[in-house]
Design a protein that fits this description.
Number of helices of chain A: 5
Helix content of chain A: 40-55%
Distance between the termini of chain A: 50 Å
Order of helices and strands of chain B: HHH
Structural class of chain A: alpha+beta
Largest sheet of chain B: none
Largest sheet of chain A: 4 strands, mixed
Oligomer: heterodimer
Number of helices of chain B: 3
Structural class of chain B: mainly alpha
Strand content of chain B: under 5%
Strand content of chain A: 15-25%
Radius of gyration of chain A: 18 Å
Number of strands of chain B: 0
Chain lengths: 129, 180
């Protein structure tokens, strides 16, 4: 039996969604492919691959923004615009969260890149030097 | 024989004349001559051969002994000469062996000194290299500890000082930096 790679499945999903197929049926087909090849536990990874494919095609950027404090709405908008410009996509879906451990600054995680300007990372770099 | 001798003796008692006047008794002389000849013949027949043979044997023995002594003397001289040459040769070999042994001993001592010096130099170099390595290691450890202390102190200060407003300003500055 031929086993399709997750990247291939992700590309198929993107193609079908762009073609206007029902997202639920496309998802079911993708899940069925994973189940048939005993890779049901890789569903989360497949979602990451789909996000990567969407971002690569310049369609959608899914990103997580982590900061030490709650960000104002103005700063959030700036960040969303920045993320779209950076990845060259028309649309973005940004999830904002806080974590005291970063101390200050932000970390932006998308499917294709990670930008980390947190104080935590800088201190870690200092410790490793 | 005794009668004859007495007759001859009586005849001599008569007055001497001719040769007798000179004091010579012919009969006595002849008697002595005959006696002499008889004794001589007897000796020649029975004694002289044995005597001569004995003397000859003795002479031959003496000659053989002399010859043997001469040969022995020659052999002794030859042996002494050979012994002297062997002793000389052995002495030469012993001298040569002693000189060689001395030379070898000196070489061993020189080699040992050289090896010892080289080993000592190597030990010193290794010790110095080890010292340098330890110094570098201590410096690195000290630097790491200092860095950790500085990082911890910085973290503590920033946590205290960086409020929400300052954090947003920091984030805005980072974005401007990226946009540039």
């Amino acid at each position: 039996m031929i086993q399709l790679s997750r990247r291939v499945i992700a590309r198929y999903v993107c193609d079908r969604l762009l073609a206007g197929d029902n997202p639920k049926s496309v998802a079911r087909r993708a899940l069925a492919e994973l189940e048939q090849t005993g890779r049901r536990n890789q569903w989360g990874m497949l979602l990451d691959d789909i996000a990567y494919e969407l971002e690569r095609r310049g369609l959608l950027t899914q990103a997580k923004v982590i900061s030490a404090h709650e960000l104002s709405s103005g700063l959030r908008q700036k960040l969303e615009r920045f993320i779209r410009e950076l990845s060259g996509t028309a649309d973005s879906a940004v999830q904002f969260s806080t974590n005291d451990e970063v101390i200050g600054g932000i970390r932006i995680e998308s499917a294709t890149r990670t930008i980390d300007t947190t104080i935590q990372r800088q201190l870690l770099t200092l410790r490793k030097a | 024989m005794q009668n004859l001798l007495l007759q001859f003796a009586a005849t001599e008692a008569e007055a001497p004349s001719g040769i007798g006047a000179l004091g010579l008794n012919v009969k006595s002389f002849l008697f002595q001559l005959i006696t002499f000849v008889i004794v001589l013949l007897l000796l020649r027949r029975y004694v002289f051969p044995k005597l001569v043979a004995t003397l000859e044997d003795r002479r031959a023995t003496l000659e053989a002994s002399l010859e043997q002594a001469k040969q022995t003397e020659e052999t002794l001289a030859k042996a002494q000469h050979e012994a002297a040459s062997v002793v000389a040769k052995a002495r030469q070999e012993a001298d040569a062996a002693l000189a060689e042994a001395k030379k070898s001993a000196q070489k061993v001592i020189a080699d040992a000194e050289t090896a010892g010096s080289a080993k000592a130099a190597r030990i010193i170099a290794d010790a110095q290299a080890d010292l340098v390595r330890q110094q570098q290691q201590l410096r690195d450890e000290l630097r790491q500890e200092l860095t950790a202390l500085v990082a911890t102190a910085t973290e503590n200060v920033i946590r205290q000082k960086l409020d929400r407003k300052a954090d947003e300003a920091l984030i805005a500055a980072s974005l401007k930096e990226f946009e540039r």
